[in-house]
Amino acid sequence: MNKASAPQKNLIKTLNKPLASLKLAVFIIISLAVITAVGTFVEAKYDAYAAKKLVYDTWYMYAIMGLLVINLTAVMLDRWPWKKRHASFVLAHIGIIILLAGAYITAHHGLDGSMRVGIGESNNLVQVPETDLTVYTSFDGDRYSKTLEQEVDFFKKPPSSEKPFVVPTYEGQIKIVDYKKYVLPSRKVVPGEEGKAGAGVRFQLQNPNVNVVEWLVQKKPNALASQNFGPAQIFLGSAPIKGRGKNEIFLTPDKEGLQYVVFQKDSEKPLKKGFVKEGDVFDPGFKMALSFRVLRYLPAALEEWDLKDSDAPTPLTTSAIKIIFENKEHWVLLNDMVKLFTNNSVYLLTYGNRRIDIGFPIKLHKFEVARYQGTMRAAAYQSLVEVPKAGEHLISMNEPLKHNGLTIYQASFQEEQGQPVASIFSINHDPGRFLKYLGSLVISLGIVLLMWFKHLDFKVGKSRKHDGDNA
Amino acid sequence: MKHLFLILISLFAVSFSASAKDGDALKSLPVQDGGRIKPYDSFSREMLEIVYGKSKFEGRAATEIVLTWMLSPQAWHDKKIFEVRNHEVLTALNLPKEQRYFSGEELFAGDRFTLLRQELQSKRETKEKLNPYFQALQRLENQYFVFQEIASGRMLKVLPPKEGDTWLSIADLEPAFQEKFMNITKSFVINIGNVAKGESTEQSAKDLDKSVLDFQDAARAQNPALYNVDSRIKAEVHYNNFHPFRWAYIFYFLAFIGLLLVWTLRKESLMKGVWVLMALGFILHTYGFGLRMYIMERAPVSNMYETVVWVSWGTIVFAAILELIYKFRLILVAGTLVAAFGLVIADFAPAVLDPSLQPLEPVLRSNYWLTIHVMTITISYAAFFLAFGLGDIGLYYYLRGEQKHQEQIKGIVTGIYRAIQIGVAFLAPGIILGGIWADYSWGRFWGWDPKETWALIALLGYLAVLHARYAGMLKHFGMVVTSIVAFSLVIMAWYGVNFVLGAGLHSYGFGAGGVEYVSAFVAAHILLVIYVSVIRSGKRKLSS
Fold first, then answer.
1. What is the DSSP track for B249-280?
2. Would you call A276 helix, strand, or coil by DSSP?
3. Which of the residues A212, A239, B340, B513 could staple to B352 if both were Cys, CB 3.0 to 4.6 A apart?
4. What keywords were assigned to this record (chain B) (predicted)?
């Protein structure tokens, strides 16, 4: 052909040769297989997030993918000018490049998160895996302004006491000195600073059928904290004048103990009033003969976490960071917050998954679980949701709602005491979708043609000489 | 050829008449269990398999055994009917490790069992993954539960409710129905008494059938809509009795023997017979597949057992096609051997490959993409399985002498190459279809889920083989070796993800089991490959 007459093309071809080599291709294919295989073992031991962070989303994975694209491009360049019989080979290889381009666009511009919507509630925020650190500052303890918001990836770059992650504040600085990937948290309550912390009470509700021991802690002084126990709801904070027609016990913190007011189901007027100290018991007077015992009372109480290390994640573990502020240590769990005080200012630090506003609310009207006959095994579940413009829509397993470029998929649900309370949706936006489909189609076409064209057939015993490309 | 068709027809006839034998009506009694209505025949087999690990006990059918648990639980007190395989659990229970079957007395009477149950419960509360020890404990607890619930009459749900969809168990029946069921048990006891005494069962079997039908009529009258399951129940009892896949592998094996005869006696005229045997096996195989499909109203490719059956089916199809093109007997040898092997494994390992018919997980329900994508991917495994079988035969020829058998080796390598090409041509689109399904259903094309990732790894493995062959890096021996070694990737994708990794969206409580056998199978083949390579290089040195 025109090989001899175009020396420039020849030079390109010579330079291109090593990049187009089949041996390099075999190396790349095997490397990809090995890396992804390692990824599946990481996922089995830890979880999908760890596998993504440690294997699939790393420089070496990107490097090998990059090399793959170079190799595919080079090998196609090497065959230039293409002939008819190259069709299958070119299509299969271009298809892969298109597919990878689509995947790249999705990875960098797509959305893949989850949203929890309680039954009867609505939500417009998608939670994504990326984590942010946010600090709000207040000088009067009331009005807060956001003074820092930053993406952090402690999973890959954990802070330590030698190399802390420092957050400057108006006075002093918050140092993040430790990070734990998997901890099992349990709540504990400790005495806090008076005037800054709310009150806390540990109580026991008891009758022959019920025995509950719980802490109730106010987030800040005079705030209302509550806990529902089915037969009665317990409040810590000031009592209203009229009841709401429910079984309720209000406990108002006082210096030495608690003032209590009891309301009953069928009356607005208080049923009972009184005063209790630590160790005291009283009978609220409900029909089910409950006794209420104050086990511990702290006029100023702080909630903290007791953390137990875990080697691998379970549905109960979470991650946590340790911060130091004014020589005091605090553990902050993922998606939790901590309040830090100085004499002049208050800082609110949150550490959690980023929430992205999808621009419209999803309202959950109804949620239903269908079970296989005679069992508790879920056969299917579905959510009746309402979104602006599209109106009501039924989302069920494998039948997602597609709206505004988003796919809203029924992922799972939350149950409390055998009753579903919330629906969990997975929310995705895939800008690379078109390229992925195009790439898939092109690859498949290539494979079909591969069966057609004889030149890739392996002929037993015949010498194989194709354009001299496997020298 | 005519003879064989006659055999086939009589086979069907025998199996149908068997299901219509006197005393067999009990088998077809509809029972609600595991989220569907099944015949008592399936129910009792599954229950006995849970407890004892087999569908017969001391040669007696499950239908008998399970009913006597309820009629006289105390008689089973010291019968060794509970299978425990895990050594750690046996140690914890202070029981001998050599023994495999134990009585309820030995296992559950002491307080050791209660302690182990508490241990399991606290493990469950932490929501960690259960290791094999805890999985074995869980099985023990389940065995205990199943036996107790059946003995108390709470497990066997035989009567549709007037409203709702949870059927009533024997223990909850109203007096009128209690009495009708008592009639069944009375005539059942008389009938097995006659069997035991060796007396004529002609009358007692008829009485038993009558009492069963009597109960069924009353049950149907209670709620005709829920009790309208007759044809599926009959099909399932027939499926259980007939065992079509067993017949299929018998015929495949006969075809394999026939091929050996063609080869050793050099009698080409036998080939017709081989094709007929294969066709018979294939028809029965397809028939069994169709039956499962009819009973469950879905494509039967939702668990390990079903995919093994489907893959064996695929190997026969591909072997036949390649044979028709290349006229090379060894492809058929490999095909029949591998298909028979797959079906035998499926038949003999119920603990690993659960043959019972189960309803689908929510995520898999009512989606034609699922069927298309799973079937495409697993059919590619059939082609790789065929290549693997050819690879084994190839190794045999290398042992016999490379020079002498050049012709065969060339043919085998052609077969391997073609089979791998077919496999790739199905696996790549299969993975893409999986992506399309995932995108359609979840809005996510690819999620690095271990099952899909291992399918991709298997694809990459075979692509590496094809490219290396094209580059001249793999010669004939290399192709034979890689066809065997690369199949380990398929085993990992197919079996290992569920049973070894036990992670990801695609592993729906398949549990663990057989890991040691599968690992031994893979290891044995790799050792064989190494052995043959060493021998071969030794021979080459000698000859050079």
1. HHHHHHHHHHHHHHHHH--GGGHHHHHHHHHH
2. strand
3. B513
4. Cytochrome c-type biogenesis, Membrane, Signal, Transmembrane, Transmembrane helix
Q: What is the CA radius of gyration of chain A?
A: 31
| The length of chain A, given as a count of residues | 471
Element (H, E) at A136: strand A122-138
- Beta-carbon contacts of residue A33 (< 8 Å; ≥ 6 apart): B457, B460, B461, B464, B489
Largest CA distance in chain B: 90
Q: C-alpha distances in angstroms, B408 versus A409, B247, B328, B339, B396?
A: 54, 31, 9, 21, 11
DSSP H helices, A124-227, are none
CA distance B27 to chain A (A): 21
Q: CA of B32 to nearest chain A CA: how many angstroms apart? A: 7
User: In A, which residues are within 8 Å of B443 by CB distance?
Assistant: 400, 402, 406-409, 426-430
Per-residue pLDDT of chain B (544 residues; tens, 9 = 90+): 445 545 555 555 455 544 467 878 899 999 999 888 999 999 999 999 889 988 889 888 899 999 999 988 888 988 999 999 888 999 999 999 889 999 998 899 888 899 999 999 988 888 777 787 888 899 899 999 999 999 999 999 999 998 888 899 999 999 989 999 999 999 999 998 888 888 888 888 999 999 999 999 999 998 888 888 788 899 999 999 999 999 999 999 999 999 999 888 888 888 999 999 999 999 999 999 999 989 888 888 878 888 899 999 999 999 999 999 888 888 999 999 999 999 998 888 776 777 778 777 766 665 677 788 889 999 999 999 999 999 999 999 999 888 888 989 999 999 999 999 999 999 999 999 999 888 887 788 888 888 889 999 999 999 999 999 988 899 999 999 999 999 999 999 988 887 777 655 554 444 456 778 888 999 999 999 999 999 998 888 887 7
Is A22 in contact with B467 (Cβ distance < 8 A)?
yes
Query: CB contact, 8 Å: B241 with chain A?
Result: no
Q: Following CA atoms A162, A164, A169, A171 in sequence, which dihedral angle do they give, to the nearest 10 degrees? A: -20
Cβ-defined contact of B450 to A33 (cutoff 8 Å)? no
Q: Which chain B residue lies closest to A315 (C-alpha atoms)? A: B127
Locate A292 and state its tokens. Answer: 């209420």
Nearby residues of B31 by Cβ (< 8 Å), 6 or more positions away:
B37, B38, B39, B40, B43, B156, B157, B158, B167
Query: Which ranges of B198-243 would DSSP assign to H, the alpha helix?
Result: 202-222, 230-242
Count of pairs with CB atoms under 8 A, one residue in A, one in B: 180
Q: Which residues of B touch A373 (CB under 8 A)?
A: 32, 35-37, 165-167
d(CA B1, CA A459): 36
CB contact under 8 A, A316 and B127: yes
Which runs of consecutive H residues, i.e. helices, occur in A370-412?
none
Nearest-angstrom CA–CA distance, B36 and A377:
11
Q: A264 CB contacts (<8 Å, ≥6 apart)?
A: A243, A247, A271, A285, A286
Partner residue facing B35 (CB), from A21, A375, A381:
A375
- DSSP E strands in B485-539: the ranges are none
Compute the distance between CA of residue B488 and CA of residue B346 in angstroms, rounded to an integer. 18
B77 Cβ partners below 8 Å, 6+ apart? B103, B104, B105
Chosen for mutation from B372, B405, B448, B506 (greatest number of chain A CBs closer than 10 Å) is B448
Of B404, B540, B515, B384, the closest CA to residue B459 belongs to: B384
DSSP for B84-127?
A: ---HHHHHHTT--SS--EE-HHHHHSSSHHHHHHHHHHHHHHTT
Nearest to B126 among A30, A314, A399 (CB): A314
Q: How far apart are CA A333 and CA A352, in angstroms?
A: 8
pTM: 0.86
The closest of B332, B292, B335 to B313, measured between CA atoms, is: B335
Q: How far is residue B58 from each of residues B101, B128, B350, measured CA to CA in Å? A: 12, 39, 18
